[in-house]
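Request: When convenient, would you put together a sequence paired with its structure tokens?
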Amino acid sequence: MSNASKVMDTVSLVPRARRFWADDFGRALYLAERACLGPQAERWSGVHGLEISLAEPIVDMSSVRHLMRWAPTHELAESSSTIVCHPDRLPLPDGALDLVVLHHVLEIVDCPHQLLQEAARVTAADGRLIIFGWSPVSAGGLARCLPQTRKALPGVGCWRSARRMRDWLSFVEFEIERLDYCGFHLPGLAPHNALLETLGRRHNLPLGDSYVIQARSRSQLARRQPQRPLFGTAVGAGTLGATRVEPSSQVHGSQVHGLRVGFSSRRNSRTESSGEGSSRDGSRERDSNER
């Protein structure tokens, strides 16, 4: 299949995707994902970011100053800051972005591995890679057992579990820092049940329609990990096997040592005085004998 046909396939999905995210079911899922990611995204900062998605912006609550969007053609570009390209060939230098978001696009593109590699390539060493995916073990995954549901969004494409995405990320030297599930609902119903959503997110049950992966580069996560003790002793300790003494114990120890020294000195003085007394008695006895 040529690159042009791939782009046309993506273009044909755009109006279908926009209709899905605008209807009742898709809007409920979008709000659930936004509520799940919002508390984390509000703490993110950076200069440049990119969101590859067919829905509305979902990380606009972050503090990233220049957040760009993606579109497959110029006609579908939403603003002047939209990047128009094929998703597996991003016209950006390595490590140029502080935040990259892949919002349910790995399931529908023809080149998911290349797209993930490109996303990892343009993510800075201290940046974040956010992946939204459809979970096969969910009410939506159960509905995909019906053949007709695979012809419409979100059933089209290939759904992959978070465990599978963990393996994919390891090939691009990324690791999952945080994993959240959202979009909890009963089969055949839209995710409007606030109780199910609250319980599912509180216990992070892997039964939601959608999962949100926050990934960082391995080098960045390795620098954030604390140093492990060396042979049971903290790194930087003076000697192996040295014990740590509390200040109060040191004071108490010095007092005990002073008492011991005083006691031993008094005992020595008594011994010396008794020795002098015995020597004087001995000299007196010798004088009396001589007389």
